Input
Amino acid sequence: MKQILPKILAGSLSLLAVSAIADGPFYGDPPNATHPWGVHDMNRPQPVHVYPGSFSSDEHPGTPPSDAVILFGGRPEDIEKWQADKPTGEPTKWIVENGLLQCVPGSGYIRTKQEFSDCQLHVEWSEPENIEGASQGRGNSGVFLMGQVEVQVLDSYNNPTYPDGSASSIYGINPPMVNVIRPPGKWQTYDIVFRRPLFKDGKEVDPGYITVFVNGVLTQDHTALEGKGGHKSRSVAQPFPETGPLKLQDHGNPVRFRNIWLRPLPKRAIDGGDTSNMSEEATTAKRAEIAKGIREDAAKLEGTAKMLRLFESIVYQDDAAARKEATAALDAFAGEVKALDAAKLNDKKGDILKVTAALQYLTKFKFIEPENASKTALEQLVNTNGWQKKK
Output
């Protein structure tokens, strides 16, 4: 162990050294006309940390992730988050019993009081253990995203029906790829990713999609929507509202639900979201925003750090004042280090290498002219002192 530990620590230090180089600016390919961030860009927002929760068992529901909106968690008061699907918005007649949300046949659909748009949705449901009926008359309910399009709930265990109406079908649009429904009385788990259709100036620009996992198995793979779907009639593409409620269907069967939660999703690029690949107009605006933030940060700095930050800003958006200030600081830095004796020059080695690498990056991607006297002077210092990286 005593011999192994130093090797492990040495490896860790080596990785830290690589990370320190890789995590800085002037590293990956820069932004371009449709990508506001560079490759491996540390100016890009860090992902928000979310605690993932736990998986369910047949006996016990799991816990939702930390950023989830809990729509039904088993508490009696959770019924207050729902109402009858009627214009009057009256209380639902569905009941909460033993921590489960129970459909009361004949009472009608229910919907959430809160409305949503694109989302990740988790729903667990169980049909009656005692088999009654067949085809669409057996354990039938439905999950309606934004109150518009239905992911079918049905006892599809040894129960043939029309495929685009079986469990986890996008009802009237697309059957599931496989049937992974467990026997009656067991809990079924739906994990759904939903993106609503998008229209601009009356024209469809994105049809919207639904992805479904049933009991951990993919059954709908980014299925494009064709409107809302529906019974008997083929639906056509149409706009959805900006937001809508989640609805659960009363189809005359006492289906039970538990552990219903939802995570709102960020907007797609076509809807104004910040993503890797954006329109040229959106990219230009985002790059200007990033450059502004970098220049504001540079104003709080001094010396080499300020100079490098200003040069970094012009990678996103050229700015005459920032370029002039950075260039003046570079010329002053090059003159300063050129006048140092050998001992003091070595103390500046780190800054010299950092600035030289930045200038080589800026030259490579044509952010500054290749013929730059200060860059040439610094490169000569690096070569004279044998500081260049070994290949």
About this structure: Residues 1-21 have pLDDT under 50 and may be disordered.
